[in-house]
Design brief:
It is built from twelve helices and 20 strands. It is an alpha+beta fold and 419 residues long. It folds into two domains: 285 residues, no CATH class; 126 residues, 2-Layer Sandwich (Conserved hypothetical protein from pyrococcus furiosus pfu- 392566-001, domain 2), CATH 3.30.1760.
Length: 419
């Protein structure tokens, strides 16, 4: 049986990946995932300055910091028009069917490996009780899907910032990919990412070289019914699935390109892969009042223990309180904390919340004004990650992130979404 058919049985497709043609400045082309720095408009303004008039993935995405500016339809139109322009003007070149092996270094890790491939959305279900081979790792907020669906609905290109994890303690998949990439030839790209994102290089794995990679994936699939867990980009993958369901109901062909999503697969056991909690910052609040409310609702005491059921409350003056929550077995701090915050936000319509990647970023935002309160959550153990998904289901929404903000995936490769 061919590697294509073997992989298809596992929910994996072999894509024809597009990358910028020679001569395109990759440092300007590649920008960070749209859901990063959502409360830091200056980051995206600086990105626009760096890009200038150069071809860039920035022109094909909508950074989430702009989602509430009332101009969504025009932004979607411009993003889709940029895709048409780049295709028609030969900005992108198409590789032969295959995967890409990616090596990334960041200010926080010397090396992290990923494998860019396509997943079959028919093998993915984001319901909380999902038993599909590809499963979500956090609760899906349906209200967050429409903006992403609006971009993808008429898009001609699939631009991935989704990271999907495998549970591969022996590193079989990446070792097979490394061997195949070395045999196949040289690097496709090798450059520094803008705005402190580190360095990236990628190698092409043509379809003919994928037999050993397919065997490694089969080995993992034989040992668990959960092959892939979505690490970053849960809502983007859910949106892609919803658009495919729309198109399927409309009579699109069974194997239309919209049925698949381009992702980067990483091994949860990669030493360069770090899990971090997602912190909360509340805006337009009376910080002391909110702190007292949380104390009443969560019945917490103060503690010097930084793990388990503890979190930190940080005020504008840098004053912080370590809080210990009583938790039942299997529960995480984010669950009762988020429930209390949701109730508070409903009762205080002027209050706002943002979910922040990186403790330093959360502290900086909190320290900027008196009407803010920062909540620093404890670390997540990645060693128990897959077991939690299998036994309990998805984590509460906005519980963890992979790496610091600057370590998130940068848009670079693409795949056509139409024939």
């Amino acid at each position: 049986m061919s590697s294509r058919k073997r992989l298809a049985r596992l929910g994996i497709a072999i894509p024809e990946i597009l990358i910028p043609r020679a001569g395109i400045a990759l440092e300007e082309w590649s920008v960070i995932a749209c859901d990063q720095f959502s409360s830091d408009l200056s980051y995206w303004e600086r990105t626009r300055e760096l890009v200038g008039e150069s071809p860039s993935t920035l022109n094909m995405i909508i950074p989430e910091c702009y989602l509430n500016d009332g101009n969504e339809e025009e932004r979607v139109r411009k993003a889709n028009a940029a895709m048409v322009d780049y295709i028609e003007n030969g900005v992108l070149e198409t590789l032969s069917p295959g995967f890409l092996l990616v090596h990334r270094s960041t200010p926080h890790t010397a090396r992290r490996e990923g494998l860019v491939l396509a997943l079959d959305l028919e093998s993915y279900d984001f319901a909380e009780d999902s038993q599909s081979a590809i499963r979500p790792t956090e609760g899906t907020i349906r209200d967050r899907l429409p903006p992403r669906m609006a971009v993808r609905r008429e898009a001609l290109l699939d631009l991935p910032h989704i990271l999907v994890l495998i549970d591969d303690p022996e590193h079989r998949v990446m070792r097979a990919a490394e061997a195949a990439a070395l045999a196949a030839g040289g690097k496709l790209y090798d450059f520094d990412l803008m705005q402190g994102g580190g360095h990236i290089h990628g190698r092409h794995l043509p379809e003919a070289a994928l037999d050993s990679v397919a065997a490694a994936f089969e080995y993992l699939a034989d040992r668990s019914d959960l092959l892939f867990a979505v690490g970053d980009g849960n809502h983007s993958l859910a949106s892609a699935r919803e658009i495919w369901q729309e198109k399927k109901r409309a009579g699109f062909p069974e194997h239309h390109p919209a049925r698949y999503a381009l992702v980067e697969v990483e091994n949860v056991h990669d030493a360069g892969l770090h899990f971090h909690p997602i912190h909360r910052v509340l805006f337009n609040v009376d910080a002391s009042d909110l702190a007292e409310y949380l104390k009443r609702e969560l019945q917490f005491g103060t503690s010097d223990d930084a793990g388990g059921g503890c979190f930190l409350m940080v005020k504008h003056d840098g004053n912080q309180t370590s809080c210990s929550i009583p938790l039942t077995p299997g529960k995480l701090v984010a669950e009762p904390l988020q429930a209390a915050l949701d109730a508070y936000l409903e009762a205080h319509p002027d209050a706002e919340i943002d979910y922040i990647h990186g403790e330093d970023a959360a502290r900086e935002l909190t320290g900027a004004a008196r009407d803010r309160l920062g909540l620093i959550l404890p670390e997540i153990r990645k060693s128990s990650f897959f077991r939690r998904i299998r036994e309990v289901g998805p984590y509460p929404r906005k519980t963890f992130s992979i790496g610091e903000a600057v370590e998130k995936r940068y848009y670079l490769e693409a795949r056509k979404l139409g024939f």
